[in-house]
Design a protein that fits this description.
This protein has 344 residues and is an alpha/beta fold. It is built from 9 helices and 9 strands. The protein has one domain: Roll (Elastase, domain 1). The protein binds zinc ion.
């Protein structure tokens, strides 16, 4: 399935008691720093190999070169993947645990997807704070131990949900969703909006959040890949190169793209993911014009308290944010990106 967002689904927190019991009986690591191996952001992108397939979650399906050793930060010292910005719950499979904060797993293990979610959400939050959204310079954004559940869904879908609590769940149909950092980051994009008091009151607001999630997946993947020195060998504007090998037949495999030419309003079809491609292309063009630091600061700043109205309304708010933060030329570039899509 390509649908990647369901909102308002009731969620039971049956695993909370189980997690607490397990924590009480095992010694903690006592430290906040650990090591792990992860995909950056996924094997198709970093290896440049469009012929990889899931092969029922087999380790042999993905070359060892797809794994990258990274540092985990912000752990709470319990020995579990609980930290300042992400807390992993899992009701099925083993829960990742290490008294030495060493989390080296391979993809067939349930713990690998848990590590991926912890690492990528923590990286995304650290990036947000590096842009000044730290509660001091600017308002904080989802600065809390984001609750995440892995592999809870037997079908290929993931979603974010803020009723009754803000929680992200990743499914395991096809390629396990949390094996692709771009799926993790897309869902975290919705959590960002929820935490910003962004209203999903209209179809256009839903489409904006889908488009933002796709954009967020690519911008954070790119920033982290560059910092780690991991090559990016497939088209950057292609979203979820690895997850989408399960349900696309043409290459490059993409769930969606940021660089399409959809135009408002004639290309609207009323489906939020489809219509989100209009929005994500505008964000992509803003990034091309301003660079990721200015673009992402403007884009995040503009969505606080969005009342769920129209693309045009949020586009005007985004132009205003660019004007306030970076002046005339930045505001002009942002306006141009939305005019090119027909939104302004
Ligand atoms: Zn979504």
């Amino acid at each position: 399935m390509q649908a990647k967002l369901l909102i308002g689904v009731a969620v039971l927190m049956a695993s909370a008691a189980l997690v607490a019991t397990a924590s009480a009986t095992k010694p903690g690591s006592g430290g906040s720093i650990g090591t792990a191996q992860v995909f950056v952001p996924n094997p198709v992108q970093s290896l440049g190999n469009e012929s990889l397939t899931d092969e029922k979650d087999a380790d042999s399906a993905v070359p060892a070169a797809a794994y990258h050793e990274v540092q985990l930060t912000n752990l709470d010292g319990s020995g579990f993947l609980h930290g300042d910005y992400a807390t992993v719950y899992s009701a099925t499979g083993n829960q990742a645990y290490s008294p030495t904060n060493t989390f080296d797993y391979t993809r067939h293990q349930d713990e690998f997807e848990q590590v991926m979610a912890y690492y990528w959400i923590t990286q995304a939050q650290k990036y947000i704070q590096s842009l000044g959204f730290d509660g001091v310079t600017r308002r904080a954004i989802d600065d809390q131990p984001q609750k995440v559940r892995i592999d809870q869904l037997g079908y290929d879908n993931s979603f974010e949900n803020d009723h009754p609590i803000l929680e992200i769940r990743y499914g395991k149909g096809g390629v396990d969703d949390a094996e692709d950092a771009e799926v993790i980051l897309h869902e975290y994009g919705h959590a960002i909006h929820s935490s910003q008091n962004f209203s999903f009151a209209s179809e256009e607001a839903g489409a904006i959040s889908e488009g933002f999630g796709d954009y967020w997946a690519v911008t954070v993947s790119d920033v982290v890949s560059q910092r780690l020195g991991v090559p990016e060998r497939e088209p950057l504007p292609c979203v979820a190169d690895w997850d989408s090998t399960s349900y696309t037949s043409t290459t490059p495999h993409c769930l969606r793209r940021l660089d399409g030419n959809k135009h408002y309003p004639q290309d609207l079809d009323g489906e939020v993911h489809d219509d989100g491609e209009i929005w994500s292309r505008a964000l992509w063009d803003i990034r091309q014009a301003l660079g990721h630091v200015k673009a992402d600061t403007v884009i995040l700043q503009s969505t606080f308290d969005f009342p769920g109205t129209t693309m045009a309304d949020l586009a005007n708010r985004t132009v205003a944010a660019a004007q306030a933060l970076y002046g005339n030329s930045a505001a002009h570039a942002v306006r141009q990106a939305f005019e090119d899509r027909g939104i302004l």
